[in-house]
UniProtKB/TrEMBL annotation:
SMART domains: HATPase_c, HisKA. Coiled coil: none annotated. This is histidine kinase. It comes from Thiocystis violascens (strain ATCC 17096 / DSM 198 / 6111). Residues 246-445 form the Histidine kinase domain. It is an enzyme of class 2 (transferase). The chain crosses the membrane at residues 167-186. Its EC number is 2.7.13.3.
Length: 445
């Protein structure tokens, strides 16, 4: 799952990107409108200069060759002027407009003003065109004229493009600085969470028993609840261990006394009693293991237990018990593979599997273990007769045995299954590469 810092940074980057885009569009629109308004006012000033320079003669309006705006006298300068009569026909144009196809507006009434962007007839050039209607009343009969000033829009677009590039650069730099500042603020703000994670890791490794640091009010409730939970679990585990120990001790002695008393008797009744005492011992052992399995939660805050070390101790002990078989045990266990839980549970699971393997094997046993993607896998296989597929599920039930003639109570695999499931794992019974049974445990790491 994505980390909190990554989520916040990505969310802030998305919001900041949208904000910068909208801001740049708004600023560009405002600058464009301001620039167009400035262009309009400047073109209006050119019209007023033309009106001041024009004089009425019998042939109509005439303008001097030398105009106040020098660009109007230079061909192709980008600034053009025309005067239209009441019918919309040009009666004068500036020297700069010679050979230039200026889009002409409709004739305007006196005092009417129109500013627009128009495209030339060739479809390649755009012009900013301002028209102003005038009633010229210096002669005996007033005449209506339309003064038109046009400017090439390429210069205007170039200015807007330069502003857009400059704006993008500055806003991009500001966005980058804001993201860097946000990452630094997040790093500082999430420091307490990193400290909590470090203390929890120390608890997992066994270096600490509780969270001890001082934290902000928002995290203090979490750390307090974690400490209370850890204390409660330790107290509950102590009570459970003491109760189980007391129960085992109190039951073993009476059962041993009764078995010893019956050893001297040789009668059908004594045989029946011995059988029932053996059954009682089996039931007591199973119920003790069941209580321990069902009462033990997934101990993710327990110190890690190396699987190889436990397997070596169990193999050495069982090899002494079964020294007459000369069993060769191969341990193919990753040194980094460890078990997160109660050490006694690991001894119980692996011990039952190895005891069955020693009991049924010919001469070879192989134990393998590895951790991968949060799962600890432990496999025990032998070269014995194996377990038929139709009996694999049945043998995981309480009291089920593959061979009634072989000594045992039939609860070993059941205890392993219940302990494994208590930790959220599963057990599989398969045919192994050595020819016998292969029991595979998968436990969350």
């Amino acid at each position: 799952m994505m980390s909190l810092r990554t989520r916040v940074v990505l969310s802030a980057a998305a919001v900041l990107t949208v904000f910068i885009l909208l801001t740049s569009l708004a600023l560009e629109r405002a600058v464009r409108e301001t620039a167009e308004s400035a262009r309009e006012e400047r073109l209006q000033a050119q019209i007023f200069l033309l009106m001041a320079a024009g004089e009425e003669e019998s042939s109509g309006l005439v303008f001097p060759n030398a105009l106040a705006e020098s660009r109007l006298t230079l061909p192709g300068s980008g600034l053009y002027a025309l005067v239209l009569n009441a019918l919309g026909d040009p009666i004068w144009q500036s020297p700069s407009a010679v050979g230039v196809d200026i889009p002409l507006p409709q004739p305007l009434a006196p005092g009417q003003r129109r500013f627009e962007r128009r495209q030339g007839s060739d479809g390649q050039e755009d012009y900013l065109v301002l028209g102003f209607g005038v009633s010229w009343a210096t002669g005996p009969v007033p005449q209506d004229y339309s003064f038109v000033v046009a400017e090439d829009a390429s210069a205007f677009e170039s200015e807007v493009s330069q502003f857009r590039a400059s704006l993008a650069g500055w806003l991009g730099a500001m966005a980058l600085l804001m993201l860097v500042a946000l990452v630094l603020i997040l790093r500082w703000g999430l420091t307490p969470l990193r400290r909590v994670a470090a203390e929890v890791a120390a608890i997992e490794s066994g270096d600490r028993t509780q969270i001890q640091g001082r934290y902000p009010a928002e995290i203090r409730a979490l750390t307090g609840n974690l400490n209370a939970l850890l204390a409660h679990e330790r107290a509950r585990q102590r009570r459970l261990d003491n109760t189980l120990g007391d129960l085992a001790h109190s039951l073993k002695t009476p059962l041993a006394v009764m078995r010893g008393a019956l050893d001297e008797e040789d009668s059908p009744t004594a045989d029946l009693l011995r059988e029932q005492l053996a059954r009682m011992g089996t039931i007591v052992e199973y119920q003790l293991q069941r209580a321990r399995a069902s009462g033990q939660p997934l101990a993710t805050l327990a110190p890690p237990i190396p699987v190889r070390r436990v397997a070596e101790r169990l193999s050495a002990s069982l090899a002494k018990v079964h020294r007459d078989k000369s069993v060769a045990v191969t341990l193919d266990i990753d040194p980094t593979a460890d078990f997160r839980g109660v050490e006694g549970d690991l001894f119980e699971m692996l011990g039952n599997l190895l005891e069955n393997a020693f009991k049924w094997c010919g001469q070879r046993i192989r134990v393998s273990g590895a951790s991968s993607r949060g799962v600890l896998t432990i496999t025990v296989e032998d070269d014995g007769p194996g377990i038929p597929p139709d009996q694999a599920i049945r043998l995981l039930e309480r009291g089920a045995r593959a061979d009634e003639a072989t000594p045992g109570h039939g609860i070993g695999l059941a205890v392993v299954r219940e302990l494994c499931e208590a930790y959220g794992g599963d057990i599989r019974v398969e045919r192994g590469a050595l020819g016998g049974a292969r029991i595979r445990l998968r436990l969350p790491h």
